[in-house]
Amino acid sequence: MNWNSLLQLLQEKATTVGLQILGAIVLYIVGRWLISLVVGAVQRVLTKQRVEPTVLRFAGNTLSVILNITLVVAILGYFGVQTTTFAALIAAAGLAVGTAWAGLLANFAAGAFLLVLRPFKVGDFIYAGGVTGTVQEIGLFVTTFDTPDNVRTFVGNNKIFSDTIQNFTVNPFRRVELTAQISGAADPQLAISRIKDRIAKIANVAPAPAPSVTILTFTPFGPVLAVRPYCHNDNYWQVYFDTNLAIREVLGDSAFPGATYPVTMHQARAAAV
Q1: pTM, entire model
Q2: Per-residue pLDDT tens over the stretch 171-182
Q3: Is the four-CA dihedral 153, 157, 158, 160 of positive or negative sign?
Q4: Helix, strand, or coil here: 36?
Q5: 3-class SS at 87?
Q6: Which of 117, 128, 217, 272 is an S-S bond match for 165, by CB 3.0 to 4.6 Å?
């Protein structure tokens, strides 16, 4: 056996493989750089077209995933792997992964529908998927929220799309719903009149629709008043707490003997702070 020839052959093979690996590394680095340029350029174009941040981020993430898959295929082709074979492997793997990860695919499809139907957008304060918070991003698979107590929360798109969605931001105002128990010996008309006058003086209470105060129901202790001022969503909690104080001030007057002051919020979910 000619050891010199064998050693020379191994050196040539090692040099060839080394150059291929080096070329693949260069191709990967350049490819990633080009992908970042393309994604950035597309996002800048969409930004100039005043596309909503929701669609902008979703399009950027989707384009990045597609281009990265293309880069991997190109690198494998550089090493001599037949792309047709690789495509068949991707299809087979996709079928297997699709069966195993049906939930992820459902989240992806739901994310697409959320973008098309637009029940909410980035920056909206909503209740969806059991979470109340401000939407930060609608991703490929999950939607990101910041809750009122400043906790970053991620919810699967399919859970959001298949559940009830409440958007607190869309309408220009919303109603604060409170109740107040008064004594059966008190004059309800006088209580209603004074509470209305007092609530109208609270900052950020909307003049139209006007605050509503009326008898909601009766208990063994006396009438229960429904107290309902309107305000912008941003001022919800300020109006809510100030209305509590207003009710306490009015019903604490000597004109309402035996009145009880606890105020109950009937909504299951509150608005943003």
Answers
A1: 0.56
A2: 888 999 999 998
A3: positive
A4: helix
A5: helix
A6: 128
